[in-house]
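2024-03-11 09:14:02 DEBUG pipeline.ingest accepted 1 chain
2024-03-11 09:14:02 DEBUG pipeline.ingest length=154
2024-03-11 09:14:03 DEBUG pipeline.predict start
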Amino acid sequence: MTRYFEDVTVGDRFESPSSFHITRESILTFAREWDPQTYHVDEQAAKASFAGDLSASGIHSLAITMKLAHQSGFFDILPIAGLGIDEFRLLKPVLPDDRLRVRITITAMRPSKSQPDRGIVTNLTELINQAGEIVLRFSLSELVRKGAHTPASP
């Protein structure tokens, strides 16, 4: 369902309709290709690490977050471009067999000062495991379209 800037408000929440199951093999495969830190690719070293087991790379966790964010319907608000990610935090390790879901809450909105047919939506994005713990969190600002029915600012 297509939405525009004026179709949402601060406090609106979007959640992924289902969870994502992360496997040991997917952690190893991603890490070998993109982030071969010892605790992502070596099971013995991982057991002695902060997580006590293999843990997903932060970049892998971010990729899963974005996949789930698209399933949540947040990106039905017609995006033009991402403007930036702030306050990116990895709060807990993502472990094999975790079931992850995403929750996105709109925290701020403002019309674009330079382009009257656009607005900026800022949200808090949280990746949550099966125990209800937030494992990853960040703030995302997105440039989005206003609807055709929105009058242009002077």
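2024-03-11 09:14:41 DEBUG pipeline.report The two ends are 30 Å apart (CA to CA).
2024-03-11 09:14:41 DEBUG pipeline.predict end
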